From TrEMBL:
It comes from the Bacteria. Pathway: Amino-acid biosynthesis; L-valine biosynthesis; L-valine from pyruvate: step 1/4; Amino-acid biosynthesis; L-isoleucine biosynthesis; L-isoleucine from 2-oxobutanoate: step 1/4. It comes from Nonomuraea mesophila. It holds the Pfam family TPP_enzyme_M. The lineage of its organism: Bacteria, Bacillati, Actinomycetota, Actinomycetes, Streptosporangiales. Its EC number is 2.2.1.6. This is Acetolactate synthase. CDD domains: TPP_AHAS, TPP_PYR_POX_like. Residues 195-330 form the Thiamine pyrophosphate enzyme central domain. It catalyses: 2 pyruvate + H(+) = (2S)-2-acetolactate + CO2. PANTHER family: ACETOLACTATE SYNTHASE CATALYTIC SUBUNIT, MITOCHONDRIAL, THIAMINE PYROPHOSPHATE ENZYMES. Its cofactor is thiamine diphosphate; Mg(2+).
Length: 579
């Protein structure tokens, strides 16, 4: 079926055919032709954000909460460059988004025209792929290709930059177009020989660990993971991006690994003789000093992206494939075999770590609020069906440590890039993708001030998110490092927000939201319950917490995981230190 229409109409029609229901964006000169037919669309809802960074993070939150491709839109030049941060964030965390940007007219490209920026060149290192369209006939095919690339294989961001004249010119629209991606063939089926090798190592191991990353969640493989874990009785650790992919309450769960991981998880990796890495990157925040990471362990590394395998740590058994298929094949192979590993001694060691070094925190004699207590109560009251969306820093770590995650995808945060300002717009996107779910953004007072203008968008669009601002008056994680490594010289980390500049309650009210404040432990439950009762407008809760609360355990950057501290100047004693 073919029709004559403008390139802009063709773009909107293609988005409708791709079943896009929500686009986050801001109009401007070069993208304006696309906004005119978007005005008439009955299928695509456009959400007018207050900053393009908010559009990108909202698309990410939408994608992470729904598993679908998130879409954001911006004009050329500064509009497009404001999307760079969320695009980089999506790239690091493998989030499928399509960013559509306007570009100056094709004849003006390269002339330093008004609001011109080479956004394709700028984003080339941080996109899975990007396109520059100057021929309107290419629009439908390119949109289909962009969504296909973003959502298949290892998910990621795709940029589609369209020149203004291509949007304005007439073209013939036909659907479906034939995609032209001859070199793009993601491998999803793992090699059976590698699966057999992995199963053999598992049977031979005495101290194996399942090291589970975001790739398992992206593959929708949490049920298969549970089956593998219970079949083998191997301990499980879940990275920041995999929280909830394996239930926290399961007796085989050791916690989160890494810089602020649990002693049981960090110890399990360090003392292991086999690491089965599933959808993980062996990221520096997990490994610590790479040369000292898990020194006695062989490695099975399964990932859909072959570039990740042996990138940081050599894999004895590399497996390229989709984690759902990899784990299913592993389960089938192990079930067919008579061999089972004996891990009784290993569990004695790990259960000892869990019992001796549980997560804990200090309370304060002056009666001020411990942020970890806020997290514990929020998790208990809001429950495991809630989506928790965190910014980056201390509050992100406390949210991972002290809220129990039982369901995959219920913890959304900026992991790889560590983007301040992620939480509020990402929570907005998550809530629009899952309107029936409760969505709590957990933000720091520093992060919150980067993107809180999207509260206006939430209020006007009827998106009743709930925001917990963990307000310690400082850039908390940076202050923690200054305390520990810079002789308590607090250079430019004091935000003074506990002096109420700004007053977050008044700010919330100015944005059309409900503002609440909590400063005492005895008021925490009532405040959270009151916020939970309000479901017609956004709610901002200013939790004023002690400025000296720290995130423990901690592995200092660049040091060995063996040197993990459970509190200042306190370290665990490892099982085999005398070997």
């Amino acid at each position: 079926m073919t029709e004559r229409m403008t390139g802009a109409q063709s773009l909107v029609r293609a988005l409708e055919h791709m079943e896009v229901d929500t686009v986050f964006g801001i109009p401007g000169g070069a993208i304006l032709p696309a906004y005119d037919p978007l005005y008439d669309s009955t299928k695509v809802r456009h959400v007018l954000v207050r900053h393009e960074q908010g559009a990108g993070h909202a698309a990410e939150g939408y994608a992470q909460a729904t598993g679908r491709v998130g879409v954001c839109m911006a004009t050329s030049g500064p509009g497009a460059t404001n999307l760079v941060t969320p695009i980089a964030d999506a790239y690091m965390d493998s989030v499928p988004i399509v960013a559509i940007t306007g570009q100056v007219a094709s004849a003006a490209i390269g002339t330093d025209a008004f609001q011109e920026a080479d956004i394709s060149g700028i984003t080339m290192p941080i996109t899975k792929h990007n396109f520059l369209i100057t021929d309107p006939a290419d629009i439908p095919r390119t949109i289909m290709e962009a969504f296909h690339i973003a959502s298949t294989g290892r998910p990621g961001p795709v940029l589609v930059d369209i020149s203004k004249d291509a949007l304005q010119a007439e073209t013939t629209f036909s659907w479906p177009p034939a995609m032209q991606l001859p070199g793009y063939r993601p491998v999803t089926r793992p090699h059976s020989k590698q699966i057999r090798e992995a199963a053999k190592l598992i049977a031979e191991a005495r101290r194996p660990v399942l090291y589970v990353g975001g790739g398992v969640h992206k593959a929708g493989a949490s049920a298969e993971l549970l089956q593998l874990a219970e079949l083998t009785n191997i301990p499980v650790i879940t990275t920041l991006m995999a929280r909830g992919t394996f239930p926290d309450s399961h007796p085989q769960h050791m916690g989160m690994p890494g810089m602020h991981g649990s002693v049981a998880a960090v110890g399990a990796l360090q003392q292991s003789d086999l690491i089965v890495g599933l959808g993980v990157r062996f990221d520096d925040r997990v490994t610590g000093k790479l040369s000292s990471f898990a020194p006695r362990a062989k490695v099975v590394h399964a990932d859909i992206d072959p570039a990740e395998i042996s990138k940081n740590r050599h894999a004895d058994v590399p497996i390229v494939g989709d984690c759902k298929e990899v784990i299913s094949d592993l389960v089938a192979t192990i079930q067919a075999s008579e061999e089972r590993g004996d891990y009784a001694d290993w569990w004695t060691v790990l259960d000892g770590y869990k019992a001796t070094y549980p997560l804990g925190y200090d309370t304060f004699e002056d009666g001020s609020l411990a942020p970890q207590y806020v997290m514990e109560r929020l998790g208990a009251i809001a429950g495991p069906d809630t989506y928790y969306v965190a910014g980056v820093g201390q509050h992100q770590m406390w949210a991972s440590q002290f809220i129990g995650y039982e369901k995959p995808g219920t913890f959304i945060n900026s992991g790889g890039l560590g983007t301040m300002g992620f939480a509020v717009p990402a929570a907005m996107g998550a809530k629009m993708g899952r309107p029936d779910a409760t969505v709590w953004a957990i933000d720091g007072d520093g992060c919150f001030q980067m993107t809180n203008q999207e509260l206006a968008t939430c209020a006007l669009e009827g998106v009743p998110v709930k925001i917990a601002v963990i307000n310690n008056g400082n850039l908390g994680m940076v202050r923690q490092w200054q305390t520990l490594f810079y002789d308590e010289r607090y250079s430019n980390t004091d935000l003074q927000t506990t002096r109420r500049i700004p007053d977050f309650v008044k700010l919330a009210e100015a944005y059309g939201c409900v503002g609440l404040r909590c400063e005492r432990p005895e008021d925490v439950d009532a405040t959270i319950e009151k916020a939970m009762e309000i479901n017609d407008v956004p709610v901002v809760v200013d939790f004023v917490v002690h400025q000296d609360a720290m995130v423990w355990p901690m592995v200092a950057a660049g040091t060995s995981n063996d040197d993990i501290k459970i509190a200042r100047d306190m370290a665990p004693k490892w099982e085999n230190e005398d070997e």
